[in-house]
């Protein structure tokens, strides 16, 4: 290419964006893993007969009343859900930005809002699905 | 629409049914390089460099959505590749852009008015892009455990262990889910998805790692990879449906068979207005995008003045598709009037069109096309036979020569040769008449044919002249 500095900058931008996307993907997986473990914990606490339960807070192992424990866990679950959803929405923007850097057209329909269940049911018939 | 067609093609291939070879089945695209320069022979296209380049420019404009509501006219003599260029554009547009192809004479039906047929064709060429979003849990089943109560009655409880390549987790199951699992016969080693909203379980197949669990497996067992990444996924699918398909669904009175029988009859304008309103609402909410497609009308001179004025109006609609028309007529009468106009199209409509002309093929190009057709029809041909065939194509017509390929192939197979020789060409040339020879034959023997009134009409002409 005629301008090595410019090309290098361009390639660096692409690599950076791609790396961001990849690490986001990994983060989603890690968060989902946490989310599933948390969910298992919530179930386990629900089944417990004791009035107290052991819980790790960082490096500490503490005994807490069961109500408080389930509160902490439920709050955690909500926070995890929010984080995963936020990452997923950002990912779409990043993918389109990467495609823009690579001079390809954006993914068609990526930024659309989804149809509701009832609407999808109606349109689904046009796609050859039987209505259920 | 196009994606449905593509699915059908795949289906045909799968069942190894014999596919029929159509006249333009060798066209794969427009044969342009990245800078829109036409290659001489590429993707089944030969010659017509300027016309192809023009079509390529139009294509780019369509892709960028800049040309909606305008029309292109492909004009040229018969057999100069007008339909081929339209087919090439359809192929190059890809499956996502709706492409409707019709012939001008298709609109004359007793069951449907002309404007209805045109409206349906136009609405078939406008796509609506929508998104479906579902939250699913996807993983390989590690273990299913169902505890039955000792008494035999009461609610069942159970556990389902699912894993991906990254994680593993246990779900507690209620009675409903256990029933589902029993019904689907889910067992360890199956890869399943669970729709979070409805709880519907579907089996994707068996995991590869469990392929050796049993010695005998049915042929319908499908092996899949263990899913990667997170267990709880968000699945987003983008669909493109044509406005016409949505119209049909909403106008039907009974059963969803209307979509498949093809005979939809007339669709009330209220239905269309409702659909338009709904789509507009979805666009406002960011739920839908309009994909203007392409409507190709072959033999457009067969339309009459009413259709032309309807098209004139329809092109001004904000959701109008790109209309590509093809005609092989010169300056001729507009159908339904006594006025004469170029291509048989009213001047006011002609004014809205970009006109692309196709030129007759040169001998070298004819040879290339015949060569491509030979390949397409699985017919090997000797070099001298091809030269003769090229001469025939030059003197009669390209279509006639292409038809000779198949017949000559059959004749050569009959004498147990797998290559078509000169003699085969000669034989089929004598068996099947071309246009000119047929005309000559008729001129010689017209008196012996039935209803021969050529002489009478000559007399009549003389009478009117006199």
UniProtKB/TrEMBL annotation, chain A:
**What GO terms fall under cellular component here?**
cytoplasm
Q: Which residues form a coiled coil?
A: none
Lineage, top-rank taxon, reads Eukaryota
| UniProt keyword annotation of tRNA processing present | no
Q: Which InterPro entries match?
A: PDRG1, Prefoldin
* Keyword terms of this UniProt record: Chaperone, Cytoplasm
Give compartment(s): Cytoplasm
Name-wise, this protein is P53 and DNA damage-regulated protein 1-like
Please name the gene that encodes this protein. LOC117647523
Automatic annotation (TrEMBL), chain B:
Q: What class of enzyme is it?
A: hydrolase
**Domain AAA+ ATPase span(s) in chain numbering:** 68-362
One GO biological process this protein is involved in is: regulation of canonical Wnt signaling pathway
* SUPFAM superfamilies assigned to the protein according to its UniProt record, in alphabetical order: P-loop containing nucleoside triphosphate hydrolases (SSF52540)
GO cellular component terms attached to this protein's record: histone acetyltransferase complex; nucleus
Q: Which UniProt keywords apply?
A: ATP-binding, Chromatin regulator, DNA damage, DNA repair, Helicase, Hydrolase, Nucleotide-binding, Nucleus, Repressor, Transcription, Transcription regulation
Q: What is this protein called?
A: RuvB-like helicase
Query: Which gene carries the instructions for this protein?
Result: LOC117649311
């Amino acid at each position: 290419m005629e301008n090595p500095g410019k090309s290098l900058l361009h390639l660096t931008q692409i690599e950076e964006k791609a790396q961001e996307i990849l690490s986001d993907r990994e983060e989603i997986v890690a968060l989902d893993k946490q989310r599933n473990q948390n969910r298992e914990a919530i179930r386990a606490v629900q089944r417990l007969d004791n009035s107290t339960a052991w819980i790790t807070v960082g490096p500490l192992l503490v005994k807490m009343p069961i109500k408080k424990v389930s509160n902490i866990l439920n709050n955690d679950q909500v926070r995890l859900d929010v984080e995963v959803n936020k990452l997923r929405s950002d990912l779409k923007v990043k993918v389109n930005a990467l495609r823009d850097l690579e001079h390809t057209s954006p993914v068609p329909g990526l930024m659309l809002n989804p149809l509701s269940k009832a609407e999808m049911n109606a349109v689904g018939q046009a796609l050859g699905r039987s209505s259920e | 629409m196009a994606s449905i067609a593509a699915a059908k093609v795949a289906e045909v291939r799968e069942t190894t049914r014999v596919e029929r070879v159509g006249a333009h089945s060798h066209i794969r695209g427009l044969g342009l390089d990245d800078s829109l320069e036409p290659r001489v022979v590429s993707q089944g296209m030969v010659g017509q460099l300027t016309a192809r380049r023009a079509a390529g420019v139009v294509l780019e404009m369509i892709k960028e959505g800049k040309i909606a509501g305008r029309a292109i006219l492909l004009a040229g003599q018969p057999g100069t590749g007008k339909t081929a260029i339209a087919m090439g554009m359809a192929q190059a547009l890809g499956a996502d852009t709706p492409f409707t192809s019709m012939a001008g004479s298709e609109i004359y039906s007793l069951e449907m008015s002309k404007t209805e047929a045109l409206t349906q064709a136009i609405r078939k060429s406008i796509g609506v892009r929508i998104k479906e979003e579902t939250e699913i849990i996807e993983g390989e089943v590690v273990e299913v455990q169902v505890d039955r109560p000792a008494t035999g009655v009461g609610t069942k409880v159970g556990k389902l262990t699912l894993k991906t390549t990254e994680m593993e987790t246990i779900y507690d199951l209620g009675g409903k889910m256990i029933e589902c699992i029993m019904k689907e016969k889910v067992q360890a080693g199956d890869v399943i998805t669970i729709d979070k909203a409805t709880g519907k379980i579907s089996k994707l197949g068996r995991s590869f790692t469990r392929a050796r669990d049993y010695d005998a497996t049915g042929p319908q067992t499908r092996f899949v990879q263990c899913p990667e990444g997170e267990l709880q996924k968000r699945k987003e699918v983008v669909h493109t449906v044509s406005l016409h398909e949505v119209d049909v669904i909403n106008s039907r009175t009974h059963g969803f068979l209307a979509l498949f029988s093809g005979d939809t009859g007339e669709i009330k304008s209220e239905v269309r207005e409702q659909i338009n309103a709904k789509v507009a609402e979805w666009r406002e909410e960011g739920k839908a995008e309009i994909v203007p497609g392409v409507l190709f009308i072959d033999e457009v001179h067969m339309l009459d003045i009413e259709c032309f004025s309807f098209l004139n109006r329809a092109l001004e609609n904000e959701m109008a598709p790109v209309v590509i028309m093809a005609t092989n007529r010169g300056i001729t009468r507009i159908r339904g009037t006594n006025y004469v106009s170029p291509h048989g199209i009213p001047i006011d409509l002609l004014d809205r069109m970009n006109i692309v002309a196709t030129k007759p093929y040169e001998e070298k190009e004819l040879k290339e096309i015949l060569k491509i057709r030979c390949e397409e029809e699985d017919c090997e041909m000797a070099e001298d036979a091809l030269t003769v065939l090229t001469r025939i194509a030059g003197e009669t017509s390209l279509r006639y020569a292409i038809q000779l390929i198949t017949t000559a192939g059959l004749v050569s197979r009959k004498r147990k040769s797998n290559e078509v020789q000169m003699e085969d060409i000669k034989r089929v040339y004598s068996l099947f008449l071309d246009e000119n020879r047929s005309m000559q034959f008729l001129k010689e023997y017209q008196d012996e044919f039935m209803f021969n009134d050529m002489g009478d009409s000559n007399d009549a002409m003389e009478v009117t002249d006199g």
